[in-house]
Amino acid sequence: MRSPSEGEEVREVGLAEALGERYLAYALSTIVARSLPDVRDGLKPVHRRLLYAMRQLRLDPDRGFKKCARVVGDVIGKYHPHGDTAVYDAMVRLAQDFAVRYPLVEGQGNFGNIDGDNPAAMRYTEARLTAYALALMEGLDEDAVDFRPTYDGEESEPVVFPGAVPNLLANGAAGIAVGMATNVPPHNVGEICAALKHLLADPEASVGALMGHLPGPDFPTGGVLVEDAEALRAAYETGRGSLRLRARWRVEKLSHGLYHIIIDEVPYQVQKARLIERIAELINSRKLPILADVRDESTETVRMVLEPRSRTVDPEVLMEHLFRQTDLEVRFGLNMNLLDADGIPRVMDLKAVLAAFLDHRLVVLRRRAEHRLGRIAHRLEVLDGYLVAYLNLDEVIRIIRFEDHPRAELIRTFELTEVQADAILNMRLRNLRKLEEMEIKGEHERLSAEQADLQALLADPTRQRAEIGRQIDRVAEQFGGDTDLGRRRTELAAAPEPVSVPVEALIEREPITIILSRMGWLRAVKGHQDLGPDDLRFKDGDDLAQTLHASTVDKVLVFASTGRFYTLGADRIPRGRGFGEPVRLMVDLPNDAEVVALLVHVPGRRLLLAGSAGRGFLVREDEVLAQTRTGRQVLNVGQGRATHCLPAEGDHVAVIGDNRKLLVFPLDEVAEMARGQGVILQKYRDGGLKDLKVFTLAEGLTYQRGSQSRTETDLTPWLGRRAGVGRLPPTGFPRSGCFG
Fold it and tell me: Which residue positions does UniProt flag as site: Interaction with DNA (predicted)?
């Protein structure tokens, strides 16, 4: 350990205290000197030094370009002692029209693109300032702002720019410091200027009133801001909030009812290439089967093409899912944490940001006026000396020619100042003409009038605010007019109504035909096919019981002879060339139970259930869905068994028993229940229920006779009340006693 030398003080300090002091110093340095922008000009030190270095190199918009390597070299050598890569990246961003709303650097060469591709090396690219950047630095030579020494003390740099344009809100800012961050969205200059004019006229204006002129952000890549108006207002009032930004899209009609979805604008700071990759992942992983393809047809403008799977796909549903799963919709976290005029970080609301800009412009106006007054006073002093020389021209010439110390003699003889004497001694002979004397008198009069005007300006706050208003008008005309640069790009829309995305839209839908054998084997084949016993193979002794058209996203209801319902996902039913799988292995179906009916679940539909004893009731399909393999007991069959389950689609019920008695009664007479034994449908002395059917009375009762179907339209003899006995069926009714 080194011993202290003479004059050094040694203090004992706790480790925690020492670390705390040093970390605090580091944190403050990061906050002030790197990460947070100044509310007055909206720039961080690296951006300010870049623009100032380019100004010193005279890279004006009307001059030629210079290599970016030259600019970066000057910046890191004179003003910003950091890595060249960081400085070049900052410079590139100022030139990207998709990154900043109003570019401050005009680039020549490859400066990257919206796909996220890197720019070319700085030795290949060239740059110069834009008119917007010059407006930001207007007044630097007129003592408008303070200067400070650079890091090595050899030169000086501005502490802040005069900022004729409201750059902070116009271009926004983002940064992460130690323990704090900032994220200000870009806005439209024309709208900012309108809000500034309103605040000038009414310093007590509320944030809500200012938002009447500045309604919301205006991002360089456009898009649609779909944030609720109250949430947006709260964000501007508090300086913190979250804004919802979506891509702009439209439907492009094609022939034969087909269409494509075209995305013309992507959200701010979203890389288009990565966005397309994410959509392609959703397609390849079959997480969005309603989307068939995505293509990038962009040139200088963005054009992403989404091709739906079919013409029946709802574009709203498709886009809603993409908004939820991709960066076609993003959240922009607004956080106006800024350095105020005293260099203190604080969160500001919209009014405070606008007021800080106006206060800065008033300071700049006064300093420029005072600087101009100083220049005028100096020039008037010189002109007064010239006038004395013209009035005493011969004596002035004599003194200059013959006196050993003409400067001192001029001062003594004509009571001149040193400035005036030096000006006379430096005067050229060609200026000793009569016309020059008249021009000096005219200039003196003009400068005297300007001096009086500036003095009146400095003495009148009302005139100062009026002058600020005229300056704002000029900015609005130059950068906020009806031009490509000034026109609003981001659409402000109301918060969208929630769009329900059905689950089946997210699952690949495929038509299938479900086959049930009499021995309870279940399988499926691709497509909707009309299959008969001769078209299918079964195990020995087995035969076709039922076929059912469905899709892979459907729920299938299995009704057993025990009166219990089971629920199967259609995608679980085995497919292939085999015989399938026994139902009892797919659900907990008892060995002695049989499958009575197989149905595709239709939400909201009613079913008519009946047992062998002639009892039954109506039940809602939504109430019979089973969540487990054990199913749900619905019909209490007692000593009998469940025999029928069919959709209640009609207004009458036809019932026939083993005794061949037919009864027809209104469907309304059947009770609707959730579970139970049900009500009597038909009375029997012997036997039980043979068959039943729900139909529409006006269309008649249809039954199958051999290979032909017959319809009985006059059913008056068989109409009765529920629980009646009925009469023998019409002549020609099948001897099997079934409707077929």
Answer: 44, 80, 82
